[in-house]
Amino acid sequence: MNNIKLVITDLDNTLYDWFTPWYKAYKLFIDDVLDNTDIQEKDLLDAIKKIHQKHGTAEYAFDFLLKELTIFQDKYPKDKIDNLRHKFYKTKKDYLKLYPSVMETLCLLRSQGCTIVAYTESMAFYANDRLRKLGLDGIIDKLYSPEEHDVPEDFQTYYSKDYYQLKKTDHIYLPLNHKKPDTDILNNIINQFDFKKDEILYIGDSLTKDIKMAKDIGIIDVHAEYGLSHHKEEYELLKKVTHWTDEEVEKEKNTTKEHIEPTYVLKASFSELLNEFKFNENTEKELENLIKIWDRTIDVQKHFNDIELKIRQLAITVSGLLLGGIITASKLTPSGENSNLISIGFFLTAIIWLIFYFVDRCWYHPLLKGSVDAGLELEDKISSKLKITGLTKHIGKRSPINLKILAGKKLHSGHKMDIFYISIILALMIASVISFYS
After folding, report:
1. 141: closest CA among 117, 160, 120?
2. Residues 6+ apart with CB under 8 A from 163
3. Burial of 265 (0-12, 13-18, 19+ CB in 10 A)
4. Is 143:172 a contact under the CB 8 Å cutoff?
5. Which residues contact 185 (CB under 8 A, 6 or more apart)?
6. Which helix (H) or strand (E) holds 3?
């Protein structure tokens, strides 16, 4: 059983049903136009196909399509366009869903440290939009998709530009009008990672565009058979308005397993992957290396912890010597000449404490926290294999203190440090004021 470390997946009709939302929305649109105008169906479909071929996509934004669809603009009632637009977008949104078990399976692979990459020929905006709406932003590590077509100059978005960007998934743009299969692009994607070919899995619904491409470069191919749509009767509508050439449509429709035989087939669901493969299971050597790295990380934690303890010890020593020296000096100084000496001593000591507090809290404590976070990340990987809870996690659970006077809020290490330094600084400042006026 192969141990997979990199999963490259197609999007449309592999992770989610692309065809049904598209068909339902376009069928609604076409029926509505035919009901409200005297436009002939063939004329309408031909006009739509020309626009799709011009822009290289069968999902050209509906607002753009309506503006360029002259036959529609000339005859459709203007007062009904907004309602039609609303119904079209609502239909697409209502039918857009992940296939069963996709989210659960991807989250499981990700929790095991498996790298997940999406590769699609859908243009950037549409692929990006579906990933955001389906909650896959951050579940997928990298998205590879073609650049966006030109946007009409008078187009205005409903939200700010930032809204339409992926926040966690890294989006890499391919050339405009890029189409699968493209072994050069797939090889370039693979070369971004340091994995062997028998550790890489490619999954897609198309035998001609996905499976053959994976086979040609020698990585493991998996056919998402559950995502096939071109045997549906509704597929005829897509054929009539698609941006694909007639040859491409027929080749896709007529290609069967007799022509291209996939190595693995998912018949019912995405989760069938778990029956066929192991995902990022560490070998004994890899586990040994993880433990070595964790051991070094613990040493780094101890190093920064020791530094913080020494800073506090040094603060106490310096402050004690300073106060002791000033008190001694005040006793040796003739009365009347040392009235403010002790007050100044307390004030200077408070300043010293403030300097040590800054170095401790703002300089070394963030470094300690960073090393702890690194330790936790390593322990998660190790403990998932050894079925144990790590030292850092145990310490993290026991370290916080619950105080009833703070409404049950927990005091963590940073809060404890603040209390330690600030309470002494306040005590010294109060002592300075009292000694000044006494």
Report:
1. 117
2. 157
3. middle
4. yes
5. 119, 144, 174, 178
6. strand 3-4
| Pair 193, 119: CB distance under 8 Å | no
Beta bridge partner(s), residue 222: 203, 264
C-alpha distances in Å from residue 86, one per residue of 25, 110, 125, 200: 11, 37, 19, 42
CB 252 within 8 A of CB 13: no
The Cα angle at residue 126 between residues 122 and 129, in degrees rounded to 5: 135
For residue 376, what are the CA distances in angstroms to 297, 308, 345, 380, 396? Answer: 10, 20, 44, 6, 9
CA distance 139 to 111: 10
How much is the pLDDT for 56? Answer: 81
Q: Which pLDDT belongs to residue 57?
A: 84
Q: What is the CB neighbour count within 10 angstroms for residue 72?
A: 20
Could you report the per-residue pLDDT of 360-389, keeping only the tens digit for each? 999 999 998 898 888 888 887 777 666 566
pLDDT of residue 256: 56
| pLDDT given at position 313 | 93
Alpha-carbon gap, residue 65 to 59, rounded angstroms: 9
φ, ψ for residue 136, nearest 5 deg: -95, -5
Instruction: Name 292's Cβ contacts closer than 8 Å, sequence gap at least 6.
Output: none
Gyration radius from the chain CA atoms = 33
Question: Quick one: tokens of 118?
Answer: 């999406």
Tens digits of per-residue pLDDT, 248-291?
A: 656 555 555 557 899 999 999 999 999 999 988 766 667 777 78
Exposed e or buried b per residue across 112-127, where buried means at least 16 C-beta atoms within 10 angstroms of its C-beta: bebbbbbbbbbbbbbb
DSSP string of 19-72? Answer: HHHHHHHHHHHHHHHHHHS---HHHHHHHHHHHHHHHT-TT--HHHHHHH-HHH
Per DSSP (E only), the strands in 178-325 are 200-204, 220-224, 264-266, 278-279
16, 19, 23, 24 alpha-carbon torsion, rounded to 10° = -20
Q: Which H or E element spans position 145?
A: strand 142-146
Residue with tokens 């408070």: 350
Q: Residue 70 class from Cβ within 10 Å (0-12 exposed, 13-18 middle, 19+ buried)? A: exposed
- Alpha-carbon distance 29 to 59, whole Å? 13
